[in-house]
Amino acid sequence: MCILCTARADNMMRSPGCLDMAAFAGTPPPAIASPDAQPLVMPLTGDQRIDGLLWGWQWNTTRLTVRFPQTDAEFYPQSFGGPGYQFIENFQPFTSFQADQIVNFGLNNLGVFTQITFSPDQNFGGGNLRFAQASRIAYEQGHVLAQLHVPGGRGSAEANPPDPYQITASAMGDNWFTLGAYLDPVLGSFQYAAGLLHELGHSLGLKHGHEANQTTFDGTRTIALPALPADMDSQEFSVMTYRSYVGHDISGGASGREEYPWTYMQLDYLALQHMYGSNHGRGSNDGDTTYSFDPVTGQMTIDEVGGSAPFHQTFSEPYNGKILLTVWDGNGTDTYDFSNYATDQGIDLRPGAFSTFSPAQLSNLSLGQAGNPVNLARGNIANALLYRDDLRALIENVTTGSGADTIIGNQTGNTVSSGAGDDVIRTLQGDDRVLADAGNDRAFGAAGADTLLGQAGNDVLKAGADDDRLVGDSGDDILQGAGGADLAFGGDGADRLDGQQGDDTLRGGAGNDRIFGGNEDDRAFGEDGDDRIAAGAGRDIVDGGPGDDVLLGGREGDTITGGPGADIFRFGRNDGGAKAADRDGVTDFSRAEGDRIHLAAIDGDWDSAGFQTLTFIGRDLAFTDVGQVRFNGNGGFLEINTAGGTTPEIRIELQGVSNIGLVDLIL
């Protein structure tokens, strides 16, 4: 929850209700409640991803004050009559740019995903969190580093967590940076992520992720703290580790030129939320938020509609134009908009997953290290992991560009617009809507009532387990249902529709289509074109529509309509049982239109080996042998004897037909 924002117009990070840098100087702002922050023992979770970052101590409040001291006198005991530092060499206050960066992106980022609020402390010597520069410092006696030393021990930086057994009260929350070493903490640079964000994390109670540790709780009792899991020990998952990438040998140190994260990363989020709670309200991007990026500069723009505080933000240009961050979105219906990229994108909306929409803007995590290795980040952005499985933090929607994209949804209802290119889209849970634009796309539904729209191109659309809607549009498409009552419309082109399980409605549209009803009670419509429809098992309704169609009823009693054109009504052994419930009915057989009834697939003698061709014996004649076909004028039935008795085994109703001749049959 952020209440500190920069006034710098080029960052444009102001949001309603935020203070700016002017609040740290001049006339004090109205009083903001800020209890006296004290150390608090931090409970472990049993989750190595979280415990691998915990120091063991945290602040006992989510309301913390911040100060940028302008003189070293604020740290000495004689200045305010209390304990303080022994010595500070070459003190320098933070520059305005350093302060802007820590306020605008460090504290602001923390406020987005945790319940921490920050306010400026204008009291001399005050501030729960303080930031300054020096060449050497010596804390008071009793501190683990009471001797004179360079911050960080090697000209880098250090910070003091709220640990009463190692850190004296006068130093808790203090962040020190070696003079001149962190003057250019550009978003995504080593100085920014491994410097400002890293040290701020320490001052809140995070330890190094790359090393195991132990913490003392009561002077005698200690507890072991693990390192991060080896496969997540990198800057891609936490700014608190020294490892630039998984497997990095840190004995060689860092170059300072690495391309690093813009934000705390997903394991940092989990650990800090464990300590200070998660934010799903004001300041958490809780409206309907859209995230987009510049293909040239890498700048991110955030547009939020609705929610507690609608806003528009554009970040400053990141280091080397590279993009690496974790997105926390507290609530709302949210969208990644990558439509301005022509690259082949790999987008994954699942919690904790990485997405790459611009390979050229992937960070080289080892830039400048010995041997000039290239270790690219596994994505441009990562989704936050869910805190206590709270689905409000999911990103619901994505729009991609004109490349050949691969997209995976998540456990809520997603809207996916894949743009031009040959794309592959896989939904997961939830009622999803997929718009696969131009290109030969493949879209796969899953759990939930999904809508898959193919648009232009030869698309493959496959439904999931529930009641889905598939629309092929133009092109020669393949539409396949699954377990639900699916609706499939092929549109223009020579399409193939397969209902499979469930009571499906299948419409071929224009073009010469092939339609398979599958099991259950289906409705299949060929519509325009010369279509081939096989209803399958179940009591189906089949309508060929205009064109010269081939229509197959399948098992159980089907109702079959040919429509205009010379149609072929085709039947097999398992079609048209003798019982009324099992027999098929043809509604519009017309010799004048050239319709014919195809019986050549039926074996005339079911009790003998081999295959016997059927013989037509005429109208209203008694059966005298197996393999005979007759027309029964009493009701208009085409009847077939395959067992040698006097009654037919197969009856097909021809509605409105008074007679059938051999010319009407294919035997």
Put the structure in a nutshell.
By secondary structure, this protein is mainly beta.
Q: How does this structure look, described?
A:
By secondary structure, the chain is mainly β. The protein has a domain at 21-38 and 58-216: Collagenase (Catalytic Domain), CATH 3.40.390.10. The protein contains five helices and 47 strands. The chain has a 19-stranded mixed sheet, with no helix packed on it. Strands 18-22-24-26-28-30-32-34-36-38-40-42-47 form a 13-stranded parallel sheet, with no helix packed on it. Strands 3, 5, 6, 7, 9 and 10 form a six-stranded mixed sheet that branches. β11 and β12 form a beta hairpin. The longest helix is centred in the first third of the chain and has 18 residues, at 96-113. It is elongated, with a radius of gyration of 36 Å. It starts with 38 loop residues before the first strand and ends with a strand. Residues 1-35 have low confidence and may be disordered.
The major beta sheet can be summarized as:
19 strands, mixed
How would you sum up the global shape? elongated
Helix content: under 10%
**% residues in beta strands:** 15-25%
CATH topology category name of the domain at 21-38 and 58-216: Collagenase (Catalytic Domain)
DSSP E strands, number: 47
- Supply the helix-strand structural class: mainly beta
Give the uncertain stretches in residue-range form. Answer: 1-35
Count of alpha and pi helical runs = 5
Q: Give the name of the CATH superfamily of the domain at 21-38 and 58-216.
A: Collagenase (Catalytic Domain)
Which CATH architecture of the domain at 21-38 and 58-216 would you pick?
3-Layer(aba) Sandwich
